[in-house]
Amino acid sequence: MTSVHDTEQAIGQNRLLPVVVLQSAADAEPLAAALTAGGLRSVEVTFRTDAAAEAIRIMAENPDLLVGAGTVLTTTQVDAAVASGAKFVVSPGFSPRVVNYCQELGIPVYPGAATATEIQMALDAGLEIVKFFPAEQVGGAKMIKALAAPFKNVRFIPTGGVNTANLPDYLALPAVFAVGGTWMVAPDLLAAGKWDEVTRLTAAAVALTKGEL
User: Model pTM?
Assistant: First the structure.
């Protein structure tokens, strides 16, 4: 089992976490190769399709990629994710049952928290990194800045409506641990098998997080 520290190092390395919705597990291997070729070392595969568990299993075989499970809503999905090789779990909201279960299993978990109350729930559970979702719709970078004032030790992974235009606004905030994005793994790119384009967009995003663009 990957430790919380190792997981945070891997995700924090690029401060960028692609959020993937795969319709076919057959796309998992070339996608993993495309992401690592672009310089990324972590990815979130969402449980929004029936292909998720198998896709996680395949992508987790890539030694250069830390694969987590996203949109995890139940403990049953936690079991499926862990059995498939997921090294961390992400939820869109705060579920005490899911959080507690992940902690019992020793797998890092990043629940959704978009309000002060939800953040306090995360802190009560011993967590200091949360998913901020849906980021743009609930106030974006300005909202994170406001929440970070009273919650100085909390770090956020904003996801939802993030793109290359507003990415710098999020990355400029010390409270932002990493940014979840879909533009480099857009469904139309994956469906068309445009792996070179995935690599190009990924490399550009990584360069942007490093201030190279």
Answer: 0.96
Q: How many CA atoms lie within 13 A of 178 on its CB side?
A: 26
Instruction: Quote the CA–CA distance of 16 and 103 in Å, as a whole number.
Output: 24
Q: Which residues are catalytic?
A: 44, 131
Residues in a beta bridge with 130: 156
SS3 109: strand
* Of residues 49, 38, 148, 129, the one with CA closest to residue 89: 129
Long-range contacts of 26-29 (CB under 8 A, 24+ apart): 27/55, 27/190, 27/193, 28/54, 28/55, 28/56, 28/58, 28/59, 29/58, 29/59, 29/61, 29/62
Long-range contacts of 91-96 (CB under 8 A, 24+ apart): 91/131, 92/131, 92/133, 93/118, 93/133, 94/118, 94/121, 94/122, 94/130, 96/121, 96/125
Q: What is the mean pLDDT of each run of 10 residues along the chain (213 residues)?
A: 85 95 97 98 97 98 97 98 98 98 97 98 98 98 98 98 95 97 96 98 94 68
